[in-house]
Write a structure and sequence with these properties.
Among the domains are: about 90 residues, Beta Barrel (Thrombin, subunit H); about 100 residues, Pdz3 Domain; about 80 residues, Roll (Pdz3 Domain), CATH 2.30.42.10. The chain contains nine helices and 26 strands. The strands form five sheets. Strands 1-2-3-6-5-4 form a six-stranded antiparallel beta barrel. Strands 7-8-9-12-11-10 form a six-stranded antiparallel barrel. Strands 21, 22, 23, 24, 25 and 26 form a six-stranded antiparallel sheet that branches. A hairpin with a 5-residue loop joins strand 4 and strand 5. The chain is extended, with a radius of gyration of 33 Å. The mean pLDDT is about 80.
Length: about 475
């Protein structure tokens, strides 16, 4: 039996060894491989696509040398650490240490003298700006000027071989038009992306600019680079992206400052060292404020208030007017009015179309430059009462109020409203800055005419009359 088991074991080992040897022999034998012979289509069969490919390549080759990579450096005091030198010799001998913070951006050369346009936010409050050309040349750039309103800055380099790009007339840009964006996203130089103009006239709550929206991929580091048309002309300066998910990266929504806005800022900085912005002197609610104030939706910009002595007041614009046009441009909301007035040269006369009740009115305003403390173009409404929702006093609530109480009842107060914590649900507002209120319509008119940073309210809370002061937060 024992001999039989040994025989079986030996046979099994031999069979396994034979199997492994055969497997190794198969593994070493070359596989049969027959590659495809040539492309599926000849260039002559797709000559249109072939021509497009060639033209796009030529376009990119013409544009890339004019795009620069920007490294902005800011020196900040390093976080304090225990210094043995100070411990030995006291604070008088403290060694001040600094660290450098760097940010990346892009720019585009726009003159033979070496002027470069980029975003204000790329070079704001920095100590040093270094640029690199597509051919590898590097050098320091001088900040000629910067304008936070348009988010445009102008740099200049000397002693470098530069190739400028021309500006196009961005008023002629059309939705659906093909564009390419060139820049240095995440520090990857000379990155080119392609897309179309997805929309025009996009507005941001914190900017007086109107923007082109594009689906050409724009990422951090693209800021300040050009958006160009198929002729290699600048139609916009890439500025920002939509980061709804908080990722901070491209999601198909990029925004560029129109070329005409950038060119106007460039010319102002080159000639005067700064950019002058038109001032009209009207206060208009943003869409969010208009909704909170209970104003109806309109096609135009509702004049919330007119500053005394302003160009608007001198032109005859009145509170309650609806601005429908500035020059030859239609106005469909707050952002339109703000961007159109900001783009008018100071000292210029501009025709403004108004809807005054059922009447169409045209006035001519002499656009001025804002004085210190005045905001350019059109201001947003202070909206001290934004977030306060009111209603007519219900008849069954009158018995809970003081005799002869009148006004409107607070139905709700939004969190974040300037009135939050001061007004309460069921309060009755009888007066606003000593003006009696008898209806929701009178309340809305009084709120629309508010100016300043505070308002005095006379209110009823249960059966007691008192005062409340609302101040801007």
């Amino acid at each position: 039996m024992r001999r039989f088991l040994i025989f079986v074991f030996v046979v099994a080992v031999c069979v396994y060894g034979l199997y492994r040897w055969t497997e190794n022999q198969e593994a070493g034998r070359p596989e049969k491989f027959t590659p495809a012979q040539g492309p599926k289509l000849d260039y002559n069969d797709v000559h249109v696509l072939a021509s497009m490919e060639e033209e796009y390549t030529r376009l990119v080759q013409a544009v890339v040398p004019s795009v620069v990579s920007i490294t902005a450096t800011k020196r900040v005091q390093a976080q304090a650490v225990e210094d043995p030198f100070e411990l030995l010799f006291g604070p008088r001998f403290r060694r001040h240490q600094t660290e450098e913070m760097r940010s990346l951006g892009s720019g585009v050369i726009v003159s033979k003298e070496g002027h470069i346009v980029t975003n204000h936010h790329v070079v704001a409050d920095v100590d040093e700006v270094r640029i690199r050309l597509s051919n590898g040349e590097e050098g320091l750039a001088r900040i000629i000027g910067s304008d936070p309103v348009t988010d445009i800055a102008v740099l200049k380099v000397t002693g470098m071989r530069v190739t400028p790009l021309a500006f196009a007339d961005s008023d002629n840009v059309k939705v659906g038009q093909r564009v390419i964006a060139v820049g240095n996203p995440f520090g990857f130089d000379e990155t080119v992306t392609q897309g179309i103009i997805s929309a025009k006239g996009r507005a941001m709550e914190d900017s007086s600019n109107e923007f082109f929206q594009t689906d050409a991929a724009i990422n951090p580091g693209n800021s300040g680079g050009p958006l160009v048309d198929l002729r290699g002309q600048i139609i916009g300066i890439n500025s920002s992206i939509y980061a709804g998910s908080g990722s901070g990266s491209w999601q198909g929504l990029g925004f560029a400052i129109p070329a005409n806005t950038a060119r106007r800022a460039l010319e102002g900085i080159i000639k005067n060292g700064r950019v002058s912005h038109g001032y009209l002197g009207v206060t208009v609610p943003s869409p969010q404020q208009a909704e909170r104030l209970g104003l109806p939706q309109i096609d135009g910009a509702y004049v919330y208030n007119v500053a005394p002595g302003s160009p608007a007041a001198k032109a005859g614009i009145k509170k309650g007017d609806i601005v429908t046009s500035v020059g030859r441009h239609g106005v469909h909301g707050f952002s339109d009015l703000r961007s159109q007035i900001a783009g008018v040269d100071t000292g210029a006369h501009v025709t403004i179309g108004l809807q005054r009740g059922s009447e169409k009115v045209t006035v001519i305003a002499l656009i001025a430059e804002p004085r210190e403390g005045q905001s350019a173009s059109a201001d947003t409404a202070p909206a001290l009462m934004a977030g306060v929702h009111v209603m007519e006093i219900p008849p069954d609530h009158q018995e809970d109020l003081p005799p002869n109480a009148h006004g409107v009842m607070v139905s709700d107060v939004d969190q974040g409203s300037p009135a939050a914590g001061t007004l309460q649900q069921s309060d009755v507002i009888e007066e606003i800055d000593h003006a009696p209120i008898h209806s929701v319509a009178e309340y809305q008119e009084a709120v629309a005419g508010m100016t300043g940073d505070g308002v005095l309210l006379s209110i009823c809370r249960d059966r007691h009359r008192t005062f409340a002061v609302i101040r801007a937060k």
